[in-house]
Write the structure tokens for this entry.
Amino acid sequence: MKHMTTRKRPSRREPSGAGFTLIELLVVISIIGVLVSLLLPAVQAAREAARRASCVNHLKQLGLALHHYHEVVGSFPVGFLYPSGPIPDTTSVLQYRWSALAQMAPQLELTSLHNALNFTFPLAYRPSGGGSAFWPFYPCNTTAMAAHVETFLCPSDGVPAPAADSGPTNYTFCAGDGSNGGEAKAANGVFILGPAITIAQIVDGTSQTAAISEQPLGIAGPYNQVSPTPVPQPVTRAFARASAPPLTDAACAASAPGWLLNKGAAWWDGNYLNTLYNHHYPPNARQPDCVTYHNPGWKAARSLHPGGVNLLFSDGHVIFMKDSVSLSLWRALSTRNGAEIAMEN
């Protein structure tokens, strides 16, 4: 008997209905977008916290170097080094302004860089042709002056160096409270244009006296602007220029000679443009910094950290000073012998 076999005809599958509809897909995408928007600020805040911690670490390294320098030399470095011998006709006394960073380079384990700098030479010489406001660097020092040192930079800034032929710095030394029209000569801070200051001379106490804070780098390109308008942007990276000392609020606001744009361009230069600041203005002040040129100056501590600046005290500890700090307290912290009662907030 023959067995009959039957073949089952393949049946069409019914739609399962398990796929996403267009509306459901859009909802999922929108939820993912909301989650990303919530997480992104947290990620950015974490990155800034890491950058700020690195900046604090650099300041602490500078603080250790200051005290090692004091042990070796018997004083802190001066803020604006002056020559001890005769001045050649090709330059001026203001061109011997080697910075505190340059002076204490060996204590920062930068001995080879320090040895490459010839401190007997000035920074620059008078242009032979005339007609140029910019004085060329002495060739014997140009290689060392162009060196970029990581310890001198805060990663929160991260903009290009203001000058292609010079190593920049985000750290600046306190000359005092900016009284006497911002004059650095014989100022009331620790790093001044004048005799070197010892720990014994900081009668207000090293734990209550500012040493180093922060500055944003200037604007890459030409080092100056010879007209008061347009105002450079961002203005926090520029200096208004006053025609002559002493500085006044009116002269700084007018900025008649124009603007200087090379803030922090040179770690080796001890002037207000590069490695000096004072507490005339509060941290991250709204008004622009102001100089005539090298000295005098009213220059605020500024940073890219939200809400304030890092401040290294003369004993080596670092705190974060809020922008809201009272101006009287801020100025009291800048003087070495003002006998003010300064309480950190």
